[in-house]
Model the fold of this input.
Amino acid sequence: MQIVERVQTGVRMERRTLKVLKALAESLDLSLGDLLEGIVLHAFEGKAPFGEKTRAQIDLLKQVYGLTLTAADAHRLAEADVLS
Done:
């Protein structure tokens, strides 16, 4: 086990994406922070963070929460109040 220092952060994220992440963390018996750390550490090494079984679960959660965004949408999102 590595000993780390964690800090509290406030991060804004698209609502449906956050719902999928929270549901996934719950199903994996992880905190949201632990799930996000794992995703980021895998991404930093160019590795996929999820196996086939978890990807299938994510696809189901995306349907449940109506998440249609894809990686192609990254960095191309604008908040609704900004568009008004």
